[in-house]
Design a protein that fits this description.
Layout lengths: L19 H10 L9 E3 H12 L3 H11 L6 E3 H10 L4 H11 L9 H9 L11 H11 L9 H13 L3
Antiparallel strand pairs: 1-2
Helix pairs in contact: 1-4, 2-3, 3-8, 5-8, 6-7
Amino acid sequence: MSWLDDEDVEETKPLAAASPEMVAVEMFKKHVKKPGDTKITKKEAIKMFMEEFHMTEKEAEQVFECFDRNMNRMLDLWEFEQFYLAAGNNIDMILDKFHNLDRDHSGKLDVKEVRDGLTGMTTRTGRRLTQPEISNFSRMCQNQSDHKVDLGRFVNLMYQLKLKKD
């Protein structure tokens, strides 16, 4: 008999909302091969992004490429936490915004699509972005080779806007 038997347990109220870090850890743990693992393969990560966040395979791969910070073709817990802190519960809104801006359905935003999207966005306090801010954010998030913004970079852009102080 344990020191805490079933009849001794009172019904407990759920804890206050878990921190984003704890939610990320629990979600990640569901996708590791064995308890204690702190990395998953690219294939496992893409599957996780598709299942947990309803991304297409192409979108999941773009996010993986962006958040595999050490480029070892694995997603470790810290890298996943960075994604979750950037997107977390807002991923549906971010995906919707990305899809709405991607008018040519290429899976990447060109400079005009990014600028058009940023023109309508506001900071945390509701202030509209200025033209210099739009230019700066647009330049920051573009891929250097094709000057386009994929979903992974867009997630980072949304996070930067969320953190922006007026």
